[in-house]
Structures are given as structure tokens and as C-alpha cells.
Amino acid sequence: MAKLVELALTALQCQAEGLLKIGDILFAMPARIQKGVDRLPAYKRRWFAADWAEIYKNRHQFHQTLQYLKRQGLVVKSEKTHDIKWVLTERGNKKLLAYQQSRADPFSSSHIRFPAPQGNGLTIVSFDISEKERRKRDWIRRCLVEMDFEPLQKSVWVAHGGVSEDFMHALRERKLLDAVQIFGVTRQGTVKRSP
């Protein structure tokens, strides 16, 4: 439905712009001004500063996001005044505070809550981070210990099962994906887990 509305708004805007262009032609826009307008790239020739379909799309996405946050119990509508306002719930405030803390110090050990690997096979995690960035190295090691990984070497760790998506997101947020390699192995070979 949203795509249909966007198409309709785009068509209406094009028609309105076309009518304005015809009006300018009928009212004899001076030739020197017309030449300047024709030399402009197409996107600068728009007669309206705003793109109606884009405005609708942004509003639609905003309202979808609000509804998602409402379903999660993070925001509610407050109608105490004449204006309807969205406010954070207690759960939303806690989530916001946790997010702000993680942004303040992304390598704090208090943000390590990843589930142990699950499934079959082995997962090998290796990382290449210089000693100058010790906090990052320590953070990854603490994460791996928390997830029941065992070291094969200082920067190569192994566990049974696969890592969670949360761990992958945490690596991405901390800009560590380029420094960390994660391999899935279906046959154990000579790698044994200690008893």
C-alpha cells in the first residue's frame, strides 16, 4: 500500500510540475531565463523544493518505527496535554541508558553477554589486533571466555557450535570485523577440546 501511495504522489507531483512548466511557456518566460533553466540538471529543474513521495515515505517509516517500539514496550502515547506525545516507558529508559553506556565505553566488560555457541561442528575465531590496542584484544578474549571458547593460541580460539548474531553485531559496532576471522568447521580433525 505504501508503494502505491508513493507512486501516486510522484505522479501527482510530476503533473503539477508539468502544469507549472506549461504556464511558464504560455506566459512567455524570457528566452535568457529559459536557456538557463534548460541547462540545469534534471534534479535541479524541479519546481517544488520538496519531493512529496519522499516526504510520505519518511513519515511512513517514522510511524512504523514508533509502532515497533510500542510493541516492544519501549514507548507509549501520552495524552496529558492537547498534543499527543510519545514518551519512553521504564523499560525504554533502561534500554536507552544501557545503549548510552555501551556507546560511552564499548570495550567495558559489563557489556559482555553473549550466549555460548550452539549447534554442531567447531567454530574457530582468530583475531589480529596490535598490542597498542590492548583494550580491544582484552575485550575479545573476555567475550570468548564468556562464550566457553578455549584458546589454541593467544589469538586463536575454538568452541563447539556456532557464534550468535549478537556477537557479530557487537564486532561490527566496535569496528572489529576486519580484524576478526570466524571459521565454521564441520569435521573436528586433530583439534580436541580439553576434558
Topology (elements, then pairings):
Layout: H1 2-26, H2 31-39, H3 52-71, E1 75-78, E2 85-88, H4 90-104, E3 118-127, H5 134-146, E4 150-153, E5 156-162, H6 165-173, E6 180-185
Antiparallel strand pairs: 1-2, 3-5, 3-6, 4-5
Q: SS-based structural class?
A: alpha+beta
Question: What is the general shape?
Answer: elongated
Number of helices: 6
The proportion of strand residues reads: 15-25%
Task: Give the overall average pLDDT.
Answer: 75
The radius of gyration over CA amounts to 28 Å
Percent of residues in helices comes to: 40-55%
Regions with little confidence, pLDDT below 50 for 5+ residues: none
Distance between the termini: 58 Å
**Count of folded domains:** 3
Strand order of the largest sheet: 4-5-3-6
Structure summary, number of beta strands = 6
The major pleated sheet works out as: 4 strands, antiparallel
Q: What letter string, H or E per element, gives the SSE order?
A: HHHEEHEHEEHE
Describe this structure in words.
The chain has 195 residues and is α+β, with helices and mostly antiparallel strands. It has 3 domains: 2-71, no CATH class; 73-104, no CATH class; 118-185, 2-Layer Sandwich (Alpha-Beta Plaits). Helices cover 47% and strands 18% of the residues. It is built from 6 helices and 6 strands. The chain has helices spanning 2-26, 31-39, 52-71, 90-104, 134-146, 165-173, and strands at 75-78, 85-88, 118-127, 150-153, 156-162, 180-185. Strands 4-5-3-6 form a 4-stranded antiparallel β-sheet, with helices on one face. Strands 1-2 form a two-stranded antiparallel ribbon. A hairpin with a 2-residue loop joins strand 4 and strand 5. Helix 1 (2-26) runs antiparallel to helix 3 (52-71). The longest helix has 25 residues, at 2-26. The N and C termini lie far apart (58 Å).
